[in-house]
What does this fold into?
Amino acid sequence: METALLKATSKSSVPENALETVVAVFSVSDPDSGDNGKMVCSIQNDLPFLLKPTLKNFYTLVTDGPLDRESRAEYNITITVTDLGTPRLKTQHNITVQVSDVND
Ligand SMILES: *[C@@H]1O[C@H](CO)[C@@H](O)[C@H](O)[C@H]1NC(C)=O
Ligand SMILES: *[C@@H]1O[C@H](CO)[C@@H](O)[C@H](O)[C@H]1NC(C)=O
It folds into this structure.
């Protein structure tokens, strides 16, 4: 069975200097039951973004504090969903986020 990552909404840009901005909302689904149906969702840990579980199988990707366009204007975020079965199934989804300038 296939692990699916279903993206509900996402923004391609976030304003700089904003506190916590929602970048994407998505759900994961795995039709398997048992360990094969348990999923772990992650992003790279060197990015100023957080993946927050909300409802069961729903996640929100938010900025972890203000972003500065002058230091980095673009982020490529890879969302990885793996289940706990053997073998582990893995699904990846890439999101590119631009930091928009709010100074002018
Ligand atoms: C993000 O990915 C795009 C397309 O693969 C690439 O052109 C761009 O350089 C990447 N940006 C960063 C900041 O890694
Ligand atoms: C997502 O980005 C990663 C890192 O740049 C790359 O290895 C992977 O192939 C990309 N996956 C998809 C589905 O585009």
